[in-house]
Amino acid sequence: MSVNINGITQNPSIPHGIHIHSFGDLYDEAAGTSVGGHWDLSGNPHACENTTDRHTGDTGNWEAVGGSIVGSKELDLIGLTGGNSVVGHAIILHNLTDDCTNNNLGNAGGRLAFCVIGVGNPSAFGETTNDAKSGITTNVPTRAVCDLKGTSGNAGISGRVWFEQDTPNGPTTVKARITGITGTHGFHIHEWGDLSSQDATATGGHYNPTNAVHAIPPRSTRHLGDMGNIFFYNGSDAFYEYTNDKISLSGTNNVIGRAVILHAAEDNCEPPVGNAGSRLAQCVIGIADAAAYDPVAQGFLDSGVPTTQDDAPCALVTTGAPSSTTGASSTSSSSTSTSSSTTTTTTTTSTSARPCIPPTEEECQRLCGDQPVEKCECTPVGEKDIRCVYSAASALVISATLVVMLVALFFM
Questions:
Q1: pLDDT tens for each residue of 347-373
Q2: Same domain, 103 and 169
Q3: What is the CATH number of the domain that holds 196?
């Protein structure tokens, strides 16, 4: 464990107790009580790091010199994966020296600073991958939180994001309240819980362990981190709510320790990341105390927040519609063939940069005309084109007018 802390004004040149606490919840900025007590898996009394009979989160004292602490230790009770992973918990800097006794947990005094332990950007360590993740196997988290702070030049933006998952294999409901913005903004989970850059670029790209194509919910094929847009306002505050079937607070798709990013512009669904612009605010997702978890008490609306996302922009991307931001061109052609069971009309719309995303059943029918459609599929050539497969009953009414209708739709 390495520490680099600056700006200590209380007792700037003494050893300070530093501990890992149970909850990565930064709601109480005044006193730091929302992080709970020392994190402990052992049931041992508090002590310092010279004994294994101590709290899991006891890391001892760290020497401050002129208001700064720079140092590192090897600690035997904590890890970055598995049941003793520190990811998603909080670090607390105390204002006094830990006396290493169990009396009042070391008498280390008040809480000067805190942070959530995130999954670090590996580039900071000269590496390309980082397998760290929250790995709690007992008392699996059912609640998590993330406290958004504005990036450089966006100090007026702040917010709180709540995550609720009642069962380990069930969906996760995400709620958010954000102040200091207007309009529609892309809202994503990013790969690295690393807030070391003021412009939020250290958080990396969208969290996408399955290497999927970017989209907006409820599209089934999308990045795990794709949460769509925040667009609903009540007064001057923006609110978001969506029940997400891709992410989890444990297991394979665990997002604890990842980052939430609020973008400057709307996510328009266009690959690779939705053209949502710069990063206005960032935070690290931390484990929350389920007993104290109460979004409404902390400012979330008790009713009226839309619980759906509009993925209509994805239909235009699916069909290769030209983008006003890239100026890409599009061409269209049509052909028909019949068999005893189906008639297939292939409508080709190609751009150089957009992969095909199979449309939903509803969009397939809308894009392919008024006649019954059996399915829509991507053509094998380049996988950038949509093929409309019609039922035999509608074969006789297919005509070139379909192409005219589709071209009109592309450029609406």
A1: 433 333 345 555 666 656 655 555 676
A2: no
A3: 2.60.40.200
Asked if 283 and 147 count as a contact pair (C-beta separation under 8 A), the reply is yes
- The answer on 230 and 149 residing in a single domain is yes
**Cα–chain-centroid distance for residue 253?**
11
Rg, Å, the chain Cα set: 26
* Amino acid identity, position 401: T
Residue matched to tokens 């890391």: 59
User: Are 42 and 84 in a shared domain?
Assistant: yes
pLDDT in tens, 112-128: 999 999 999 999 999 99
Asked, for residue 135, whether it belongs to a domain, the answer is no
Handedness of CA 300, 302, 304, 308 (dihedral sign): positive
Separation of alpha carbons 257 and 284, rounded Å: 6
pLDDT (tens digit per residue) in 12-57:
999 999 999 999 999 999 999 999 999 999 899 999 998 999 999 9
Domain limits for position 8 = 2-117
**Same domain, yes or no: 187 and 278:** yes
